[in-house]
Amino acid sequence: MAGLARTVLGDVDPSGWGVTLVHEHLVVDWGELQGKPKLRFGFEEGVGRIVERLAAARADGVGGLGECTPIGTGRYADVMVEASRRSGVAIVGATGFFHEGWTPMHPLAKALDVDALTDVYVREITEGMGATTVRAGLIKCATGEGSIPVAEEKLLRATACAHRATNAPIVAHITESMEKEQLDIFESEGVDPSAVCISHVGSGERWQERLLGALRRGANVSVDMITYDFAPDEERIGVVRVAADAGFAGQVMLAHDALVLQSGPEQMFGIGPSDFGYIPRVFVPRLIAAGVDAAAAWAMVRENAQRFLARF
Ligand SMILES: [Zn+2]
Fold this sequence. Notes:
TIM Barrel; 13 strands
């Protein structure tokens, strides 16, 4: 690997991790954005449940994951540290804020300008997330649908500036589309698209054309939501195949976007059983059976994801 991945336990060469999932969550707590966390778990019980899921994934070959929860939505650095120590799964935490479509935007995201937001991100990557000394190893950003409002554009520009200062990889959430507009903003700020992973690709109008457009610009994509009930494997395999058949397998990563603990009703988004081992155990073999080259399919959850994270 050219560099190291910045995990919650320190900087590590990820090449020994085995299966590496770029976009997962341990905890999502939307209530935290209203200043009122809603999780009904104590620390030990919560960590215990997470470790159970991670240990099961470890048995399926998973050695590392990107924990892409943004600031104020259940991103608990101490939980990540403890879960990583006990399970042996390396965890890369995120700095960055979510979009304003689904929840009120975080007060800091609303109040700060691009420079001040950049300072927050850089500090979280170089010193520690929130009030901890646990450093973030990726920048999460997100947009809603239809257009990119001023507040979200500000976050994308801060993401770009913090990336330029630290080289941290960028994991971008699209709700359905807007990846082109995200990449336009990143490129206007001097970001090489190879530092970006567009998450949640493969849905909405003209998704094939839009997917290939992002790949041609050099961006990585994550085909994720694997195990969600509205994203059956056959459909997700079809998304991978569009990218792979066009020669872009080296820019594809796979993830479940699963989570273990969440506030609000269980199955809020029809999310599956937080099975972080499903991709190596079931999905990759299905991908290969569907005609994707075996070495290329395994690279999507090994080298491609490891290379993307190893930027420090
Ligand atoms: Zn996610």
